[in-house]
Design goal:
Length: 229
């Protein structure tokens, strides 16, 4: 399983691979790593569920005394003063909220949400995110429409390669399958940087064969990888 993020050394390796690959071509390469679950967002979701749990229980007709009996044990209802009943209900709410919080945190930080999401939905989500990054990073604005994006989503365990029309018009489509294979095989071993470097090197060879560098060819886009969520 791929671990989260890139170390500075790994980011530097990828930048170096992109710079070297672009020396032999007029194409532009960008690498994007969509990091795993956002810890803050996941924690907020879990807290929201915990806070809402008692209200949801009451909305569905669960009485405070029922919560108390369920979460803090049996009690003699006729022997409770109003103050005792309120304290008992409050204890039940706290136990319920804590239980929901622990369960929600365990779920959102586990692979369970991914396992429960249909493959088609995950693919569509990655396709949309990759297309958005392709535009956001300026790959649609290269002079000869020769931008290539390597996009990896750790959350969905999927990788995409997007090439602009200037490349698709010249490079055979089947070569991109080779790029994906080179990218994903190291990812399965948790070697994120190795996957990006291998894929970038192959893209460099593809671009060099079909889009040699121009005499006045500038480096239009940054070489550093981008980490997003």
């Amino acid at each position: 399983m791929a671990r989260r993020g890139l170390t500075p050394d790994e980011a530097a390796r990828i930048s170096g691979a992109v710079a070297l690959a672009e020396r032999g071509t007029s194409g532009e390469i960008r690498c994007v790593l969509a990091d795993d679950v956002d810890p803050m967002r996941s924690a907020l979701i879990a807290c929201a569920l915990a806070l809402a749990a008692p209200a949801i229980a009451l909305l569905f007709g669960v009485q405070p005394q029922t919560l108390a009996d369920t979460f803090i044990g049996w009690s003699a209802a006729h022997g409770l003063t109003p103050t005792d009943a309120a304290a008992s209900a409050l204890q039940a709410y706290v136990v319920l909220q804590t239980t929901v919080l622990v369960l929600a945190l365990a779920i959102v930080f586990s692979p369970l949400p991914r396992w429960l999401t249909p493959t088609a939905w995950r693919k569509a989500a990655v396709d949309r995110a990759a297309a958005a990054q392709f535009e956001a990073l300026g790959l649609v604005h290269t002079r000869d429409r020769t931008g290539v994006l390597l996009y990896v989503s750790l959350r969905h365990r999927r990788a995409e390669v997007l090439a602009d029309e200037g490349i698709y018009a010249k490079a055979p489509h089947q070569v991109w399958d080779e790029v994906i294979a080179l990218l994903t095989e190291p990812l399965r071993r948790g070697e994120t940087a190795d996957g990006f470097v291998a894929a970038v090197e192959r893209i460099g060879a593809i671009l060099a064969a079909h889009l040699p560098p121009r005499a006045d060819d500038p480096n239009e886009l940054p070489d550093a990888p981008v980490t997003t969520r």
